[in-house]
Amino acid sequence: MPGMSRRTVLRSVAAGGAAVAAPGLLAACSTGSGDSDVSNAGKKLAPWPAYRPAGGPKADLAATEAGVQAGYTAYPADLVKSVSRTPGDGSTVKVMSVSFGTPPKPASANRFWAAVEKALGVKIEYTIVSQADYQKKMATVMAGDADTLPDIINLFAGFVLPREAEFVQRRAQDLTPFLSGEAIADYPNLANIPTHAWRDMGRIGGRVYGIPLERPLPGSTLWLNQGMFTDAGMKEGWTADDFAAVAGRATSGRTYALGAANGSLFGNAFHSAAHNAPQNWAVTKDGVFLPGCADERYKASIAYQARLRKDGCYHPDATSISQIDLTTLYYNGTVGSMQDGFGAYLPKYREAPDGMTPAAALPYSVGGEPGGIVAARRSFGYTVLKKAGKERVEMLLRVLDFLAAPFGSKEWELVHYGVEGTHFTRGKDGSPEPTRLGEVENNTNLPLKYLAEGPQVLFVPGMPDAVRALHAWQREVVPHAVRDASFGLQSRTRNAQGTTLKALLDDTVTGIVAGRLPLTDWDAAVKTWRARGGDRMAEEFAKDHAAGA
């Protein structure tokens, strides 16, 4: 595994960092005159693809129905073959996806790229878009001519793209005949994607248009420097007051207990979930959608964070520092914690300096109630195809089926590590360890994993204790996950105005916690948010939910 570098820090962000949409960006984007009806209400709903778990190495730590991931304390010794034949037809396939790495070497000089092309049986013409440029690039793609679309497009879930669903419905291939119900059996690795990922991706107009990138249930997580917090008195079963006291003791001089990055709202996801506040939306038994921003528990979490900031526990640059620079401060001990996605656990453990042990924080309790954690959208994004003839679509699906190979397969190893002896060697436990070339040629810089990927598992090469700790943490917190009830549902108002409305609330949270605005401004911001579209979103989500979407 690689040592600390700018590239690997970027990978930490890619693994689970929250992306923040810029207000107003893409506001002028349109998919044509007159938006189509993307709601699922009143539509015949296509069955979800039939789930057929893949075979392969048995996990050392079992997954649970509730959402705890399977854990592997060692790399599988005998890899399975998950694809029986070369999927491609020798043609050129144009693809586009988000990227969190550095631009790769060109295909002509990239042995990783060449090896994947050979295995897939296609030539890959790759448009790789950095996270920073993704929204602007998608605006161009969505407004362009249908004939110029790439064959395969990754739609990253980290941003709200205005009228995204309308664009997909108009321009992308309807995959329902190919993947719905038992039809997916022709693509065994895609059939291995659990139903929860398809549900959180959602249907559009009752149809299945995409292939989800499955992700674990835990979402935004507070990553601690375990030693720093333990020395400051951290204990199991801590309360909100205990947390504040520990953060105060861990803060001294130029060392701060709490780090935060620009756009993270001072780590608001962790704190609002600990207060058991709805994460964006809750739904009642009667199907009424309630906005989390109007919940008193959410307001209480903002007040709590303002208290922590006033006590000096946050790094002073919490509203301006980048996630990349915050990661550096976390590793060098300047900050004792940072919010990141749960999926960032791998670089956290592998890149931590000697003597530092990362740990996912247990939520504190509030008013005697056990704290919750953020339940992530189980789809990190999804992949759509350009409209094409049946044979072309089937070939592209076979390519994606190869890329979605499960952990413990030869195909997974190729896509994630490259060629043995060229891009990686074997560690003592058999785990792939990148060579110097593998540091440059890999699926971070050539981000195939954002086109299709098998279900993720818990695995940290050479660190079985880390896997055990993560699995035990999941078993404790997963029952208290707070899920956004709008996942997988359609709302025309959210599609058109979600970015701007989100910015209104985010700016207010940041202003209150930073001390620039009084807490009393929150109610006024919520009132404005509701009037400008929040209440319409609630009605639209309720209709989609009632339809069984």
Overview of the structural elements:
This protein has about 550 residues and is of the alpha/beta class. The protein folds into two domains: about 260 residues, D-Maltodextrin-Binding Protein, domain 2 (3-Layer(aba) Sandwich); about 220 residues, Periplasmic binding protein-like II (D-Maltodextrin-Binding Protein, domain 2). The protein is built from 18 helices and 14 strands. Helix 1 packs across helix 12, helix 10 crosses helix 11 and helix 17 packs antiparallel against helix 18. The longest helix is centred in the C-terminal third of the chain and has 26 residues. The chain starts with 5 loop residues before the first helix and ends with a helix.
Q: What is the CATH topology classification name of the largest domain?
A: D-Maltodextrin-Binding Protein, domain 2
CATH architecture of the largest domain: 3-Layer(aba) Sandwich
Tell me the strand percentage band: 5-15%
> How many distinct folded domains?
2
Query: How many β-strand stretches?
Result: 14
Mean pLDDT: 92
Main sheet makeup: 5 strands, mixed
> Per the principal axes of the C-alpha atoms, what is the gross shape?
globular
Corresponding CATH superfamily of the largest domain = Periplasmic binding protein-like II
- Classify the secondary structure makeup into a structural class: alpha/beta
Proportion in helices = 25-40%
